[in-house]
Write the structure tokens for this entry.
Amino acid sequence: MRVEGRAKITGAARYAFEYPADDVAYVMPVQAAVAKGEIVDVRVPDLPGVLSVLSCLNAPELNEVPDAELMLFQSRRVSYRGQLVAAVVADTLETAREAARRVGVTYREDDADVLLTPDHPGLYAPDQVNGGFPTTEETGDADAAFAASDVTVDATYRTPAQHNNAMEPHAALAEWTGADELLVHDSSQGAVTVQSTLKKLFGIERVRVVSSHVGGGFGSKGTPRPHVVLAAMAARGVGRPAKIALTRQQMFAAVGYRTPTVQRLRLGADADGRLRAITHDVVVQTSTVREFTEQAATATRHMYRTPNRYTTHRVAALDVPSPSWMRAPGETPGMFALETAMDELAHAAGVDPVELRLRNEPDRDPETGLPFSSRNLAACLREGAERFGWAHRDPRPRAERRGRLLIGTGVAAATYPATTLPARARARADADGSFTVQIAATDIGTGARTALTLVAAETLKADPGAVTVEIGDSDLPKAPLAGGSMGTASWGHAVARACEALLHKLDDPLPQEAYVDTKQELSERADYARHAFGAHFAETSVDPDTGEVRVLRMLGVFAAGRIVSPTTARSQFLGGMTMGLGMALMEEGYLDPLFGDFANHDLAQYHVAACADVPELEALWIDEADPHLNAMGSKGIGEIGIVGAAAAIGNAVHHATGVRFRELPLTPARVLPGLEDR
């Protein structure tokens, strides 16, 4: 059982909007109705209970921060439809909503550029892509090797905009407890990051951010979003605590999304399927407010052995909302393209798709030449193939039917970086035999409290019931955010080191305390390529009369170092795989080319996968000892479950139908025309 399970079941666990405050005011944003232009005037409604209307006409000046999305109301410029251009502060939530509906904003509208195309005239090469990776990477001569290859694949793959849709909306409660002292309860993946940003924006030093319980984030809460700034502005302006919770519709524009991608893959191989060349060209979009370039080609750089490789990214700055992190950014769309292309290569070369991947396994990281800290992709493929019954598969497309349904199976590999960042932690032993561990980690629903409790208990050789873990508060020892599959790997390492230091003091009179900072230790680690790996297997049915695709069963096998908490780990793997199914079959943000915003901005029109969509879903892992990561030997698992899942489903659909679909999602409207062409 999760250590916070009872609190969540009984309602004792409080989320950002649920914290009580006296004389609280409510904030409701107003979004831009044009895609590009300038605000001419803002008309304030005459409605009882309205305390203030914030806009570019009266907003307090903020100090500049790198993320311009947080510079609320500092300019008359409108950069995309849905941008926050004003906000009502009122006595009640109902009044704030109605007043926001009545706020009149007059614009001078300009022509907007909102559609991403692979030949967009504004495409450019950014200085770097998300994660700090080089935009372009080249080894050998990929063009020449491709031209000389016996078997080739040259195809373009497309993924649409996708939206995070956490269960808990982005919400905050802000209260100025002094002239320059701010307390914020925020729905965030990193209280420390929010704290440092608010300090800069408002030019103050005393900021405390509490993110005790967070109902999902998937990257959209990884950095501060405008709502928390707006709550702080409103609270200061009216002299009262202020609450804000974005609506589901507002979240589609205001908190980030996964950019659509256009990816061209060119694979060249010998007759037996051994790669000679890989070229991976990526085109994505960003906004004109801030640059965010999804690193979709970076996984290609270390996946398979080839002497010739060229990967590059190009981005177009459009008049659209700012894209940002969404679960496994870069790897998720990038591995869909790469693993689909590998399936096409296997078919063209007449090689089994599992065997093709095994033949191209590298013994060192192809990009850096470094040894892998551990790489058990081959073991995942073999274990998965055996458990899935891959040996009984008829390799011919369209070879199996069940009634009138076409049945197919597919496979795809998965990978995600295994990162451990510096963190601080404090451990205390009290005379009553209890232990307390403190670290500014955040549990976004992944089970971080449980995992850290188990790490501390094992290190202290104590019963988990004797350990209390305190997290989710910027006043605790500093720690990185919950994201990039680095949370537990980083926090757990610091917790283990603090508990190890405390062990040496337990013979002295209690209470005793130990404090650690892992920065120095991690800076002295030997160089290794650190990644988690996995393999997805999927069986699908396709209705040839309607184009409907159903996933009958999925299996994921992962190599992610030591699994600290098996129960919560399985939940993470299954959650990622389910989101991968949603990516494959249903999730798609429809950008209206006339207005420049997402037309399907609620869960009635933007569909996500539910339990009924996955009749049989299984996740397991292999034993992997990796001494080069952290004190636990564990890798992050929050994101690898989604990577490759969509490709496995798409490859299964090809096997079922004999038709290759290179654009997601595989809705009936997209699949049926392809079947009719046969």
Notes: The domain at 424-523 is CATH 3.30.365.10 (Aldehyde Oxidoreductase; domain 4). Residues 566-585 form the longest helix (20 residues). The longest strand covers residues 275-287. The radius of gyration is 26 Å.
